[in-house]
Design goal:
Blueprint lengths: L22 H24 L4 H6 L5 H4 L3 H12 L35 H6 L15 H14 L25 H42 L7 H6 L1 H24 L2 H17 L9 H8 L21 H6 L5 H13 L4 H6 L6 H4 L1 H10 L4 H5 L2 H11 L5 E5 L2 E4 H4 L4 H7 L5 H25 L7 H6 L1 H21 L5 H7 L22 H27 L1 H23 L9 H6 L7 H16 L8 H19 L2 H5 L1 H22 L2 H10 L13 H10 L7 H9 L3 H10 L3 H20 L1 H20 L12 H5 L1 H22 L4 E3 L2 E3 L1 H24 L11 H36 L3 H21 L36 H12 L6 E3 L4 E3 L5 E3 L1 H42 L3 H11 L9 H11 L4 H32 L1 H19 L6 H13 L19 H12 L3 E4 L4 E4 L8 H13 L3 H28 L4 H21 L4 H5 L4 H8 L2
Antiparallel strand pairs: 1-2, 3-4, 5-6, 6-7, 8-9
C-alpha cells in the first residue's frame, strides 16, 4: 500500500487540469508541492534547534537521549567496540549551541557530555522568554538589566516579571548583556531561519484559503470547488492540499514543541528590535498565533518519538480554520470515492480493502480535525468511516513515518470513540492478532519455497505471476499490520499483540498455537525475506519488459521451425524445413498429406503473428490462443498421439506459444502494482526499533548482509511520494529530494554500521598485539634467535584476525551499487565511511582518556609537580605507542577490506586534532565556530565531544589540557628556562621540559597536533595582550599625567639629570600598584612564546629529517612570495593561505616576530616598562650555568627569559620607536646606576654590592632582549657604550 503522498501525479495527457495552460491546476500542484517541502523543512530544522531553547523550555534536547534511532545505533556500536581506555567524567563548557546536525541523525557528532551541556546551556535561559514577554516587554527588559547589574537572586534565575525566561541562571555577577550578545552573534542566523519557516507555514494557509476563495468567486472561470472535486486529479490534489495543511500543524507541534517555538519567536522579535536589518516583523501576529503553545504540554521526549502524542488538535486547528463547507465537501469526497485508483488495482481483493485505502485513511484522519463536529456528534458518519477504513486496524500512518493510535487520539471525541469501540475490544484485537500470526506463518513458508535457489527463473515467473504477486500482497499486509500495531499505546492491547512464548524459546517461525507469539525477530525475518523476493521479482520483470520483443521473436522462430519440421516429417521428407538438430530428432514415417499440409499451414499462421502489428494485445493473445487450441486438438489425432516424437514437438511448440502470450501480456503496470504493494512509507521510522535485531543477526552470521540490499530498496520507496510532488511542482524540489534521500541513506548507514564496528573491534585487538606483544624486528637477527623473533603464535593470531575481518567485509563488498531516492549509494564507500567513523571515535577516546592530567589546584609543591610531570610524560608515551599500534593494524588489513588505510589514518587524525583545536579556540572568540560551520566536523564520521575533567574545568578538550599541562610544569615557580640548553630545568638541574619531551609530545599528537598547540598558544598570547591593553586603558591612562611628567623629567634620554635617582625612586613608588598585572602578562606571554619557540625547533628538526626536499621547496616558495610582495606583484590569496599553513608545519619563522594585534598608540608605555624593569631587576640574578636570569628567592613566580620574551612580544606589537625609546630609558638608567655604583664604591657606602648585582642583571636583560628580538648590538650600544658593558661584566 502506498501512502497518500505516494500518489504519482498524472501526466498532462491524462488530465487536463495539469496542463501547462490551466492556472487552477498549476496553482493547486504548486500548493501541494510547497506543503511537502515545508514538512521536510520542519524536520530538517527541528534537528538544529539550539540546545539553550530546550533547556529554557525544560525539555531535554535531542542530544540528551539521541535522535530517534541513531542513538540506538550508537549504543549498539558502543556495545560492539573493544574498549581499551577508561571513560571521562563531567563537563562541557563552550559546546552550548545545540545540535548542528545535517540531513540525517548520524550527521550529528556523538555527544558524551551527558547532562552537563544542558546545565551549561541554562545560563542562556534568563533572556530566552516565552510569550509572556509580549504582555509587558518593558518590565521583562528592565528585570533583565537589573539582573545583569546585580546577579541572580534566590529565585534561581527567574525574572521579576514572572519567570518566562526559564530556570537556572548563570553565576552571580555574570554579565548577561555580554552573554546575550555572544548568543545573538552565534545564533541569529538560526533564529532567522526558524522565523522564516513559521512565516512560510502561515503563508501556506493564506495561499490555500485564497485558492478556495478564488474557486468560490469563479476566478478560475470554468473551475469551481465541485468541478475540481469531480475531476480525478483535482480531487486527489485538493484532498492532499487540505491534508498537508493539517500535517504541517501536526508535524510542527510534534517536532517543535510550543515552548520552544515561543522562545524562538521572541528571540527573533528582540533581535530585530535591536537590529532591523536582520528581518521583518510585519507578520508577527500571525506567527504568534501559529506558534503559541497549546494547553497540553507534550511529554518530555515527544519530539524524539516517531509515534504521535495526543495534543489539543481542536485548539491548534481552530487557529487557522478552513471554510466549513469546503472541508465537509472534502470529507464527503474521501468517504464516497477512491481518490487513489492505483491502490485498488494493486489490492483488488475485498479482504484487502483497508490496506488499499490506507493512504486515503491517513488523509481522512487529518482532515477530520478540521470538522470537529463530526468527531464529537455525528455517530453515523464516524461509523461509516470506521467500517470503511478502520475495521481491522487502529494505528494509522500520518505522514513521513509518524504514526498515531486512534484509540488515544479519538478517545476524547464521543462519536469517534463509540465508532472505534468494536475494533478496540480485547477479543476483536485477539482475533486480528491470531489471524495476522497465521498469515505470517503462511507467508514464511511460501517465501522460503520461492527463494530456493534456481526457482525464480523467467519461465517460472511468467507462469506463476499471479501467485507470486498474491504472495507479496499477503506478506506486505501481514508486515504492515504487525509493525504498526506493535506500537499501540494501549497497554492491554500491546500485551496481546507483543505476546512472548511462554517457554522463552527462540523459533524461526511464529508460534501458531496457544498465545500465537510473534516476536520482533519473526517480523525482521518476514521483512528481509519479503524484500528479497520483491527485489528479485522486480529485477526479473524489468528484464522481461526489456526483452519482451526478443522473447517473442525467439519463441516464434522456434515454434515456426517446429511446425515446418513436423510438416516435413509427415510429408515423408528429410525435415529440411527446420533446423538440423530438430530434423535429426525426427525419423521418417509414412507420408501423410493431410498432417503435412496442416503443420505447414500452422507454420504460416505462426509466422503471421507480429509483435509490432499494431493490434491490441488482447487480439494477439486471442490468435495465440487459437493456435494453442489447434495444437491441443491435433495432438488428439491418432497418428500424432501414437508418435512420441511428434507429440513431444507439439507440446514444446504449445509451450512456446504460451510463453509468447505471457511475454506480450507483461506491461509496466506490473511494476507499478509492485511499487504500491511493497510500499513501506508507514514503517520508515518504526523500523528503527528493529536495528539491534538486524545487528545481532549479522554479528552471528555475516552472510546475512546479502539480504539487506533488498531491504534497503524496499525502504527507498517510502520517499517516492514526498519527493514526487515537489519535483513536479516547484523548482526547489531538489532540496526535498535530498532531504528524504539523505534520511534513508543515513538509516542505511546505521544498519550497515555493525560491519565496520565489528571489523574495527578486531583491528583494535590486532593493534594490541602490534603494540605490546610483537617485538620489532632488527636489521640483523642471529640464527639462534630467529625462532624467538618469529613469534609464530602471535603472527598466527594476527592472520586469523585478518581472515575474520575479510569475512565481515565480504558481505558489504559483494553488494551492488544501489540507487536510493535521488542518490546512488556504494556499499564499498559505506564500509570505508563506517571504518572511518569507528576509527575517529576510538582515536578521539584515546586522546581524551590518556591526555588527562591530575594537577591539584593551588596546592602544588616542587616534588608533587615533578611527579605530575613524570606522569604526564608517561601518558604521552603510552598514547604514542597505542596510536602507532593502531596505525600498523589498520595498514595490515587495508588490502583485505579494500580501503586506503594509511591515507585514512592521516586524514582522520588530522581532522580530529584540528577540530579539537578549533573548539578549544572558541573560548577566546565572540563568534564561535559551531559544528555546522566547522570544516573539520562531518556527519559521516562525526568527531565526538567529551565532558570536561574536574581538574581542568576551563579546558574544552584534550588540546586545552595539553596546553594547560605545559604551562603548569614550566611555570616560573617550579622551573627556570635556559635558552642555551633549550628547555626548562628545576633548581637541582634536572630536566623539566626539554628537547626529548617535545619530541615525545610530537610522537603522541603528531605534527598536526604540535601546530594546533602552537595555535592555541597564539590565542593565549593574544588574550593576555588584549587584557594588558584593556588594563592600560582603564587603569594606567588615569595616571597619564604622572607618566607624562616622568617622561619629561627623564628627557632627553642621552643625558642623566642631577635628580634622576629621586625620579626613579618616586616613579617606582607611584607605579608600584601597576606592576603585578604587567608581571603576570609578561610571564604568561613569554612562557607561551618560549613554548612556541621549542615547538618551531622541533617541527624544523622533524621536517629536515623526514621531508628535507619538501622543507626546502616551501622555504624557496616563501622567499619568492616575499620578493613578489616587495616588488608589488599580485598574489594569489588562497596560495598564500595554504603556504602559511605549510610554513607553520615545517616550523618556519620566529615566534617572537609574530604580530598578534593592532592597536592605537599607548602613550607612556616605554616609561612604564622602564619602571617595570627597575622594580623586578632586584628579584633576578644571572646564573652562568643556565645562562639565564634566575629568581633570587626560591618559589617566587618570576623567571628571566619569559619576562624578556614577554616584553619583546609586547614591543613588537607597536612601532619600532617604542623599542628604541625603551632601550633609551633603560640605557639612561644603566648609565646612572654605573655612576651611582662608582660614587658609592669610592665613598665606601653600603649597598654597592647589591647595586652591582642589579646593574649586571639589567645589562644582561637588555642583551637578552636584543638577542631574542633579533636587534643588532648597535641598538644597545647607542644607549649603553660597549666599554661600559664590558666594564660592568667584570664588576
Amino acid at each position: 500500500m502506498a501512502s497518500p503522498s505516494d500518489d504519482r501525479p498524472s501526466t498532462v495527457d491524462d488530465a487536463s487540469l495539469l496542463s501547462p495552460d490551466d492556472l487552477c491546476g498549476r496553482s493547486l500542484l504548486a500548493l501541494v508541492a510547497a506543503g511537502h517541502a515545508m514538512a521536510a523543512r520542519i524536520r530538517t530544522l527541528s534537528d538544529r534547534v539550539p540546545l539553550p531553547y530546550w533547556a529554557a523550555s525544560r525539555l531535554p534536547g535531542p542530544r540528551q537521549s539521541g535522535p530517534g534511532g541513531s542513538n540506538e545505533a550508537r549504543q549498539q556500536q558502543q556495545r560492539q567496540r573493544s574498549k581499551s581506555t577508561s571513560s571521562g567524567e563531567v563537563g562541557g563548557l563552550f559546546n552550548l549551541f545545540g545540535p548542528s546536525r545535517k540531513a540525517g541523525s548520524e550527521g550529528a557528532p556523538e555527544d558524551k557530555t551527558g547532562g552537563d551541556e544542558l546545565s551549561d546551556a541554562r545560563k542562556y535561559a534568563p533572556f530566552l522568554f516565552d510569550f509572556n514577554y509580549l504582555h509587558n516587554p518593558e518590565e521583562y527588559e528592565a528585570s533583565l538589566l537589573a539582573r545583569a547589574r546585580d546577579g541572580p537572586g534566590e529565585d534561581g534565575g527567574k525574572t521579576a516579571a514572572g519567570g518566562g525566561g526559564g530556570s537556572n541562571g548563570g553565576p552571580a555577577g555574570l554579565d548577561l548583556a555580554q552573554l546575550e550578545r555572544e548568543f545573538t552573534v552565534n545564533q541569529s542566523k538560526t533564529v532567522v531561519e526558524f522565523y522564516e519557516l513559521f512565516e512560510s507555514v502561515v503563508g501556506y494557509h493564506t495561499d490555500l484559503s485564497s485558492f478556495v476563495d478564488d474557486l468560490n468567486r469563479g476566478y478560475y472561470i470554468r473551475h469551481t470547488v465541485e468541478s475540481v472535486l469531480s475531476d480525478e486529479v483535482g480531487r486527489r490534489l485538493v484532498c492532499e492540499a487540505v491534508y498537508l495543511w493539517g500535517v504541517l500543524l501536526i508535524t510542527m507541534e510534534h517536532y517543535l514543541p510550543g515552548p520552544v517555538r515561543e522562545r524562538l519567536v521572541i528571540s527573533y522579535h528582540r533581535m530585530v528590535g535591536r537590529d532591523p536589518s536582520l528581518g521583518d516583523i510585519s507578520k508577527i501576529d500571525s506567527v504568534v498565533a501559529l506558534c503559541r503553545s497549546s494547553a497540553v504540554r507534550p511529554p518530555a521526549t515527544a519530539h524524539r518519538s516517531s509515534h504521535k502524542h495526543p495534543a489539543d488538535e481542536m485548539r491548534l486547528f481552530a487557529r487557522f480554520p478552513l471554510p466549513s463547507d469546503f472541508v465537509r465537501n472534502v470529507v464527503g469526497c474521501l468517504l464516497s470515492s477512491d481518490i487513489y485508483r492505483r491502490s485498488t488495482t494493486a489490492f483488488p481483493s475485498i479482504d484487502h480493502r483497508s490496506v488499499a485505502l490506507a493512504g486515503q485513511a491517513s488523509i481522512l484522519y487529518v482532515v477530520l480535525y478540521f470538522d470537529p463536529h463530526a468527531l464529537r456528534e455525528e455517530n453515523a458518519k464516524m461509523r461509516s468511516v470506521v467500517d470503511r477504513f478502520f475495521g481491522d486496524n487502529w494505528v494509522v500512518h500520518v505522514y513521513g513515518g509518524l504514526t498515531a493510535d486512534l484509540g488515544k487520539e479519538w478517545g476524547r471525541y464521543g462519536a469517534a470513540r463509540a465508532a472505534m469501540a468494536g475494533v478496540l475490544g480485547e477479543e476483536s484485537v485477539r482475533v486480528l492478532h491470531v489471524g495476522n500470526a497465521k498469515l505470517i506463518g503462511q507467508c514464511m513458508a511460501e517465501l522460503r519455497a520461492y527463494l530456493t535457489m534456481g526457482i525464480l527463473t523467467d519461465g517460472f515467473v511468467l507462469d506463476n505471476r499471479r501467485d507470486l504477486l498474491n504472495c507479496l500482497r499477503r506478506c506486505n499486509i501481514a508486515l504492515r499490520w504487525r509493525i504498526l500495531h506493535r506500537r499501540t499505546a494501549d497497554v492491554a492491547l500491546r500485551e496481546i499483540i507483543c505476546a512472548k512464548q511462554a517457554d522463552g524459546a527462540l523459533t524461526t517461525d511464529p508460534k501458531l498455537e496457544g498465545d500465537f507469539a510473534v516476536s520482533e525477530s519473526h517480523v525482521i525475518s518476514l521483512l528481509l525475506l519479503t524484500s528479497q523476493l520483491e527485489m528479485q521479482l522486480k529485477d526479473t520483470f524489468r528484464q522481461l519488459l526489456e526483452r519482451r520483443e526478443d522473447i517473442w521473436s525467439s519463441c516464434k522462430t522456434r515454434t515456426s521451425g517446429m511446425m515446418s519440421d513436423l510438416a516435413g516429417y509427415f510429408g515423408g521428407g528429410d525435415g529440411d524445413g527446420g533446423s538440423g538438430s530438430r530434423a535429426a530428432a525426427l525419423s521418417k514415417v509414412d507420408r501423410h498429406e493431410g498432417l503435412s499440409d496442416w503443420f505447414a499451414a500452422m507454420a504460416d499462421e505462426v509466422n503471421a503473428l507480429s509483435y509490432e502489428s499494431g493490434e491490441h494485445v488482447t487480439v494477439r493473445g486471442r490468435r495465440i490462443q487459437h493456435c494453442v487450441q489447434s495444437l491441443e486438438e491435433i495432438e488428439l489425432f491418432d497418428v500424432v498421439d501414437r508418435d512420441v516424437q511428434a507429440r513431444a514437438f507439439v507440446g514444446e511448440a504449445r509451450g512456446m506459444l504460451l510463453q509468447m502470450a505471457r511475454a506480450v501480456g507483461i506491461s509496466s503496470g506490473v511494476l507499478d502494482d509492485m511499487a504500491w504493494i511493497s510500499d513501506m512509507s508507514y514503517g520508515v521510522e518504526c523500523i528503527r526499533s528493529y536495528v539491534d535485531i538486524i545487528h545481532a543477526r549479522i554479528s552471528k552470521d555475516p552472510a546475512n548482509v546479502s539480504l539487506l540490499q533488498g531491504f534497503f530498496l524496499k525502504l527507498s520507496t517510502s520517499s517516492d511520494g514526498p519527493i514526487e510532488r515537489p519535483t513536479s511542482g516547484t523548482p526547489g524540489g531538489a532540496g526535498v529530494s535530498d532531504y528524504y534521500s539523505s534520511k534513508l541513506i543515513s538509516f542505511v548507514r546505521t544498519v550497515l554500521s555493525i560491519v565496520p564496528v565489528s571489523v574495527f573491534a578486531i583491528i583494535v585487538q590486532m593493534s594490541d598485539i602490534f603494540e605490546r606483544r610483537l617485538q620489532p624486528l632488527p636489521l640483523r637477527v642471529p640464527v639462534e634467535k630467529l625462532s624467538s623473533f618469529a613469534q609464530l603464535g602471535e603472527r598466527y593470531k594476527l592472520s586469523m584476525m585478518a581472515h575474520e575481518v575479510s569475512i565481515f567485509a565480504n558481505g558489504i563488498l559483494n553488494m551492488e551499487t544501489t540507487r536510493i531516492g535521488g542518490k546512488e549509494i556504494s556499499p564499498r564507500e559505506f564500509l570505508e565511511e563506517g571504518i572511518r567513523r569507528e576509527m575517529v571515535s576510538h582515536v578521539a577516546e584515546l586522546f581524551n582518556n590518556l591526555l588527562q592530567f591530575d594537577f591539584a589546584a593551588d596546592a602544588e609543591t616542587v616534588s608533587s609537580m615533578n611527579k605530575h610531570q613524570a606522569a604526564a610524560m608517561r601518558s604521552l608515551n603510552s598514547l604514542g605507542g597505542r596510536l602507532e599500534g593502531l596505525q600498523r593494524a589498520l595498514v595490515s588489513v587495508e588490502d583485505y577490506i579494500s580501503i586506503p588505510g594509511l591515507t585514512m589514518w592521516h586524514e582522520e587524525t588530522a581532522r580530529i586534532l584540528n577540530y579539537n583545536v578549533e573548539q578549544e579556540v572558541n573560548k577566546y572568540l565572540l563568534k564561535k565556530v559551531l559544528d555546522v560551520d566547522s570544516r573539520y566536523q562531518s556527519s559521516l564520521a562525526p568527531i565526538p565531544r567529551f565532558p570536561r575533567t574536574e581538574n581542568e574545568a576551563t579546558c574544552i578538550n584534550f588540546t586545552g589540557r595539553v596546553v594547560s599541562m605545559l604551562v603548569k610544569i614550566t611555570d616560573a615557580q617550579y622551573a627556570t628556562f635556559s635558552l642555551e640548553r633549550s628547555g626548562w630545568y628545576s633548581a637541582d638541574g634536572s630536566v623539566v621540559f626539554g628537547r626529548n619531551n617535545i619530541a615525545l609530545l610530537r610522537k603522541a599528537i603528531g605534527v598536526i597536533g604540535l601546530t594546533g598547540i602552537d595555535r592555541l598558544l597564539c590565542y593565549r598570547i593574544l588574550h593576555e595582550l588584549h587584557r594588558l591593553v584593556k588594563f592600560f586603558r582603564t587603569n594606567v591612562t588615569k595616571q597619564g599625567m604622572l607618566l607624562e611628567q616622568l617622561r619629561d623629567e627623564l628627557s632627553p634620554q642621552w643625558k642623566t639629570t642631577a635628580n634622576s635617582v629621586a625620579i626613579y625612586h618616586s616613579g617606582s613608588k607611584k607605579t608600584e600598584m601597576l606592576m603585578l598585572p604587567m608581571l603576570t602578562c609578561f610571564r604568561r606571554v613569554g612562557q607561551s612564546q618560549l613554548l612556541r619557540r621549542m615547538i618551531k625547533y622541533e617541527l624544523q628538526r622533524c621536517a629536515s629529517k623526514e621531508a628535507k626536499l619538501f622543507q626546502q621547496k616551501i622555504e624557496i616558495r616563501n622567499a619568492e612570495i616575499l620578493i613578489s610582495e616587495l616588488i608589488k606583484d599580485e598574489l594569489d590569496v588562497s596560495e598564500v593561505k595554504e603556504l602559511s599553513l605549510l610554513t607553520n608545519a615545517i616550523g618556519l619563522g620566529d615566534p617572537i616576530n609574530t604580530i598578534f594585534m593592532t592597536t592605537d598608540p599607548m602613550e607612556g608605555l616605554p616609561v612604564l616598562l622602564l619602571f617595570f624593569v627597575i622594580n623586578y631587576v632586584p628579584k633576578l640574578s644571572y646564573d652562568p650555568v643556565s645562562g639565564s636570569l634566575a629568581k633570587v628567592k626560591s618559589g617566587y613566580p618570576i623567571d628571566g627569559w619569559p619576562i624578556v620574551a614577554g616584553i619583546s612580544t609586547l614591543l613588537r606589537q607597536f612601532h619600532p620607536s617604542y623599542t628604541k625609546a625603551f632601550l633609551g630609558y633603560v640605557g639612561q638608567f644603566i648609565r646612572l646606576s654605573v655612576q651611582t655604583y662608582v660614587s658609592r664604591k669610592q665613598e665606601k657606602k653600603e649597598g654597592s654590592s647589591r647595586l652591582a648585582a642589579d646593574l649586571k642583571t639589567a645589562i644582561v636583560m637588555m642583551e637578552q632582549l636584543c638577542d631574542l628580538s633579533n636587534l643588532p648590538d648597535s641598538d644597545l650600544y647607542e644607549h649603553v657604550p660597549q666599554y661600559l658593558i664590558e666594564m660592568c661584566s667584570e664588576i
